[in-house]
Structure formats: C-alpha cells, structure tokens
Amino acid sequence: IPRKQRKRHFNAPLHIKQNKVSAHVSKDLRTTTGKKTMRVKKDYQVEVVRGEHKGKKGKVLRVILKPCKIYVEGVVKNKADGKEAQIPIDPSNVIIIKVGSTSEKKV
Predict the structure, then answer these.
(1) Can you say whether the dihedral through the CA atoms of 38, 42, 43, 46 is positive or negative?
(2) Residue 43 in contact with residue 59, Cβ under 8 Å?
(3) Coil, helix or strand for 73?
(4) Checking phi first, is residue 74 left (phi over 0); if not, alpha (psi -120 to 50) or beta?
(5) What is the pLDDT of residues 32-67, one digit of tens each?
(6) Which residues pair with 47 in a beta bridge?
(7) Which residues of 27-59 are buried (b: 16+ CB within 10 A; e: fewer)?
C-alpha cells in the first residue's frame, strides 16, 4: 500500500536516511573508487544532471538528512528583494565528480 511506504520513507530514522542521500559516481571516479553510487557528503564536487540547473558544477555546501536534500554552490535563485537564496536539490539529480575537499591543506 503506497501510504505505508510513504510513511516509512518520511518517518525513517536518520541512520536509515543516510543511505537515501546517495548519488551516482562519474565514470572517471568509478575506476578509482570502484563504486557506482556513494553517499553525498559536504565538500564533494558534484554536477547537476536534472532540472532547471542542469549542467552546473559546484561544491556541496550542506547535506540535510531530514528532507534528504543537498545544497550546491552556485545553484541559487534571485528573490524579489534582490538577494540570492540557495535551492535544495535531490541527491538523485546530481553526479559526484570529485570526492573530498577541493583545496589542499597547507602545513
């Protein structure tokens, strides 16, 4: 019954929702990691492949487990007062390009 499945999805505990915040891995990265899908984490480089912002690449700024959404750098909308607002994206609409931080740590 669909209503029970929806209830399980939305009321799932966070340790189960972690698995739902996953995305496909690019073909280049697949050879090094050996995985087809991975959990999206902060500071990963992703490319949006679906929706209005298709083709945009950027760093993951935030991952929110409760609604299963991520925020990507550069994916914004303009508000009526001129400010920019981040747009939440479903992780299934992105591809992971690069794992980890883009900047190297300097010692």
Answers:
(1) positive
(2) yes
(3) strand
(4) left
(5) 999 999 999 999 999 999 999 999 999 999 999 999
(6) 57, 95
(7) eebeeeeeeeebebeeebbbbbeeeebeebbbb
Burial class of residue 94, CB neighbours in 10 A (0-12, 13-18, 19+): buried
Contact 93, 75 (CB under 8 A): no
Q: How many CA atoms lie within 13 A of 10 on its CB side?
A: 6
The predicted-structure confidence for 14-30, as pLDDT tens digits, reads as follows: 999 999 999 999 999 99
What are the beta bridge partners of residue 20? none
CB count in 10 Å sphere of residue 98 = 16
Could you give the maximum distance between any two Cα atoms of the chain, in Å? 56
Q: Record the tokens describing residue 70, joined without a space.
A: 């991520």
Length of the chain: 107
Contacts of 44 (CB under 8 A, 6+ apart): 59, 60, 96, 98, 99, 100
Which strand (E) or helix (H) includes residue 106? none
Model pTM?
0.84
